[in-house]
Amino acid sequence: MLWLQLTLTGLQTGALYALTAVGFSLIFGATRVFHFAHGAAFVLAAYVFYWADTAGLGMIPGIVLAALAAMAFGVAMDRLVYAPIQRHEGSFFTVFVASFGIGIVVENVVGMVFGRSFVTIDSTLSQSRELMEGVYVAPLAWIAIACAAVFFAALQLFLRRTHTGMALRALADSPELIRVFGLDPRRLSSIAFALGSALVVPGAVMTALGSGLNPALGHHVMLISLAATIVGGIGSIGGALVAGFVLGLAENLALIAFPSQWSEAVTFAILFLVIILRPAGLFGRATAH
Amino acid sequence: MRARVWAATAAVCMLAGGAFGKDVEIGAVFPMSGTNAIYGDVFKSGADLAAEHINADHMLKEPLKILYEDSQALPQPAVVAMTKLVEVKQVPYVLSAFTGVSKAISTLAQRSQTVAVNGGGVGPDLAKLGDYFWNVIPLANLEVRAMVPYLAKHGMKKVALVYVDDPLGQSILDELNANLPKVDGKLVAELSVPTSTQNFSGIAAKVRASGADAVYIASYGAQQIQIAKQLRDNGVKAQLASYSGFSTPDALKLPQAEGLLYTTQAVNYKAGDKVTQRFLADYQKAHDGKKPSAYIVNYYNAVLLFGILAQKLEEAGKPITGANLLAERKATKSFDLVGGTVSFQDNGTLLAPIQVNKIVDGAGQPQETVDIN
């Protein structure tokens, strides 16, 4: 039954990875900005939710506040950090360094405000129940998987059925063409940041309830998002979703065959293999320059 | 007139500069940021209280000042911090913590003849770092030797180990492998995790599958709390056990850690000596009656030890250097520190009995004291 247990655990882990990676992929795909501070948005949302819980505001207001904080952070990054750099034709590397720096600042500010130690929200949602002999599943696992499905479906509908969604997809290909059609690339970019940042909220909330928080959490989130984005194919939101699940499952199922310290390394072994064998990623389009 | 003003200003500056320059300075390389910063705050509270007492008693001719540097509990930043303290500040005595950090700075301590004193790291290797590296804390090998018989006595002979993949975790693995067979016990699972791992639901599944009676957690900081929480959340019902690293306020108050067993050095707060009573009274006065943890005692003792040795050197008219501090420690058979009169082994490690504690209502309750020596 160990394999079944690890498969279920892997699906739960994968759902959280998928949601975070989809957010990063949406931002990167639409704007080509390497938003390293995506992990900081995750930390910010998680701690706002934690604050709301400790303040006794309740779960739903906490989720709303966390979403508002993450979206405001994403839009502020786009408008106040990336836009000025891009206006002065800053390189990809300049944007990356700025984003990395903001990530560090957020980590330290969160540490100063909430303390640097481990915090968690005690909830029955994270407590597993025995599904069958030797197989334990927490309600949070089902919520994580359902969230991944619902948010992905909603995002696909938005991107395919709305004008703004279609414009976002077009933004990645040609910002100039967007202008020709009378649309504002800067506004679309902010929408991409707001949506992408909002997608960290389910993962952030479930991490606060499940494994707990510390201010340095963002680095791990970012590494996984980046790996899933590359494995899935840069710019492919569906690819990021599938890759998130693949990485989550691989990380857990690796425990059957390998010593436990290798389970995280499996993620990066997969990344390495994909880069070697299929550089465009599982669902990416090969491009020639 | 202008010349007089300048002269007066210069005199004040010189006097002030001279006064600050005469402080007796020691260093501390503690984690002040990152996931283990909580330990830095705990260690600092003990060290600062000792400095306060030393200065209030005028034990030294000039005030004692502790210069804190951030190690982030990582070896590389710790070496940078130690280099600054030794090369720039030229302190003779440095407080250290964490096994990896202590091992990293020990070479510099030995080379520069600076005494480094560890009160937080418990890797057994710390007893072998040379004359200039001292431990005012019993090391993990002693803690494991106390915990294993206790578990066996209570019918828990099949033990699973979840350990961080670093020198501390490795040493606890070695100790469990060496000590479990002595009580007819067995290590049924050994699950190492990198220091960065935060998700342990898969590890919990492996622990459950191992059929262990007890799970020994050998990690530190936020990670050890996450392990305890996720093991319980994921259906692990076996007894949880750990070492003194679990005696932080955050770990103790975790609901999922209720009932967890952990070892610490035994500190006899009921000892009637003045040092213990003063420490306890002043600490509780400053912290709303809270009982100090073993770490706070250790760093209080580490600074008080410096005060005692430096006082003796000043009385003998000798400069306070690392070499002289070492010679004075070797010449002194015992020290009156918090918890009673203690002595050092030849390898510079303090001897102390070990206590098995159980977390009850968010606080450690002593269960049994084991004299390992």
SSE order and pairing:
The complex is a heterodimer of chains A (289) and B (373).
Chain A: H1 2-31, H2 38-54, H3 59-87, H4 92-114, E1 129-132, E2 135-137, H5 139-161, H6 163-173, H7 175-180, H8 185-198, H9 200-209, H10 217-232, H11 237-257, H12 263-277
Antiparallel strand pairs in A: 1-2
Helix pairs in contact in A: 1-5, 1-8, 1-9, 1-10, 1-11, 2-3, 2-4, 2-9, 2-10, 3-4, 3-8, 3-9, 5-6, 5-9, 6-8, 10-11, 10-12, 11-12
Chain B: H1 2-21, E1 24-30, H2 37-56, E2 64-70, H3 75-88, E3 93-96, H4 99-112, E4 115-118, E5 133-135, H5 140-153, E6 158-164, H6 167-179, E7 186-193, H7 201-210, E8 214-218, H8 221-233, E9 239-242, H9 249-252, E10 261-265, H10 274-286, H11 294-315, H12 322-331, E11 335-337, E12 340-342, E13 354-360, E14 363-370
Parallel strand pairs in B: 1-2, 1-3, 3-4, 4-5, 6-7, 6-8, 8-9, 9-10
Antiparallel strand pairs in B: 10-13, 11-12, 13-14
Helix pairs in contact in B: 2-11, 3-4, 5-6, 7-8, 11-12
Précis, in short:
The complex is a heterodimer of chains A (289) and B (373). With 289 residues, chain A is mostly helical. In chain A, 74% of the residues lie in helices and 2% in strands.
Give the key terms.
heterodimer, A: 289 residues, mainly alpha, ABC transporter involved in vitamin B12 uptake, BtuC, two-stranded antiparallel sheet, 12 helices, 2% strand, B: 373 residues, alpha/beta, Rossmann fold, 2 domains, 7-stranded mixed β-sheet, 5-stranded parallel β-sheet, globular
What do you see in this structure?
The complex is a heterodimer of chains A (289) and B (373). By secondary structure, chain A is mainly alpha-helical. Chain A has one domain (2-122, 133-277): Orthogonal Bundle (ABC transporter involved in vitamin B12 uptake, BtuC), CATH 1.10.3470. Chain A is 74% helix and 2% strand. In chain B, the strands form three sheets. In chain B, strands 7-6-8-9-10-13-14 form a seven-stranded mixed sheet, with helices on both faces. Chain B has helices at 2-21, 37-56, 75-88, 99-112, 140-153, 167-179, 201-210, 221-233, 249-252, 274-286, 294-315, 322-331, and strands at residues 24-30, 64-70, 93-96, 115-118, 133-135, 158-164, 186-193, 214-218, 239-242, 261-265, 335-337, 340-342, 354-360, 363-370. Chain B has two domains: 2-137 and 271-351, Response regulator (Rossmann fold, 3-Layer(aba) Sandwich), CATH 3.40.50.2300; 141-265 and 355-370, Response regulator (Rossmann fold, 3-Layer(aba) Sandwich), CATH 3.40.50.2300. The A-B interface holds A 2, 5-6, 9-10, 12-13, 108, 111, 115-118, 120, 122, 126-128, 130, 134, 136, 138, 210-212, 214-217, 219-220, 251-252, 255, 259-261, 263-264 and B 33-35, 37-38, 165, 191-194, 196-203, 205-206, 208-209, 221-222, 225-226, 229-230, 232-235, 248, 250, 254-255.
